[in-house]
């Protein structure tokens, strides 16, 4: 049996989280499928899918953190309340960035023999690297909010946050589309019979 990559893609989930609405859980979606063509390695397909799908717990924790941030930020009454919520958001984003870096490293380390899988591998690593670059922009901008010491400074930093993260959010959306295409192609390729 070949495991497919879940249709709930990492990037599409991170887009919603970065916009404050949360991130869904990646789920391993093992399915019974026809025997792979002789050129495919069932083991290689499963290794790839396992790396992509194993991070569900991390994204579940990230979703909880984003929900906490949204709740705390909307209930904030002081500059200190807002900066504390921003600090927690930065910690959550930084944890996800570390996880995505590890995922990219693990994917890159897989010794595929199949040329098509090597292409998916590199394309997905490129998506993860681009995602980390965009999340770094978002994390850095939110970190500036966390450092605000007055209402005037907070107002200025929130304006900069919005300005700084527009491009990063657009990049994440593009990467989400790329990731979706890779996953669809990968699932089709690995389940071909």
Question: Secondary-structure blueprint of this entry?
Answer:
Blueprint: E1 3-4, H1 10-18, E2 29-30, H2 42-53, H3 56-75, H4 79-109, H5 115-146, H6 151-190
Antiparallel strand pairs: 1-2
Give the DSSP E fraction (strand runs of 2 or more residues).
under 5%
Tally the helices: what do you get?
6
What is the CA-based Rg, rounded?
19 Å
Could you report the average pLDDT, rounded to the nearest whole number?
Answer: 79
Number of strands: 2
What characteristic shape results from the CA principal axes?
elongated
Question: How does this structure look, described?
Answer:
Helices cover 75% and strands 2% of the residues. A two-stranded antiparallel ribbon has the order 1-2. α1 packs antiparallel against α6, α3 packs antiparallel against α4 and α5 (115-146) runs antiparallel to α6. It is elongated, with a radius of gyration of 19 Å. The protein contains 6 helices and 2 strands. It has 193 residues and is mainly alpha-helical.
């Amino acid at each position: 049996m070949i495991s497919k990559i879940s249709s709930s893609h990492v990037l599409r989930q991170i887009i919603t989280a970065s916009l404050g609405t949360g991130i869904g859980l990646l789920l391993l979606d093992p399915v019974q499928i026809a025997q792979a063509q002789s050129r495919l390695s069932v083991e290689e397909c499963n290794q790839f899918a396992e790396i992509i799908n194993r991070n569900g717990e991390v994204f579940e924790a990230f979703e909880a953190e984003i929900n906490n941030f949204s709740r705390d930020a909307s209930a904030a009454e002081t500059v200190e309340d807002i900066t504390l919520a921003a600090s927690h958001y930065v910690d959550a984003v930084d944890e996800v960035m570390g996880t995505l870096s590890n995922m990219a490293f693990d994917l890159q380390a897989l010794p595929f023999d199949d040329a098509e899988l090597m292409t998916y591998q590199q394309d997905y690593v490129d998506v993860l690297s681009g995602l980390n670059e965009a999340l770094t922009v978002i994390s850095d901008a939110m970190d500036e909010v966390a450092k605000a010491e007055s209402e005037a400074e907070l107002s200025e930093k929130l304006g900069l946050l919005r300005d700084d993260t527009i491009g990063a959010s657009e990049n994440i959306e593009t990467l989400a589309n790329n990731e979706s295409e890779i996953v669809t192609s990968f699932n089709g390729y690995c389940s071909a019979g």
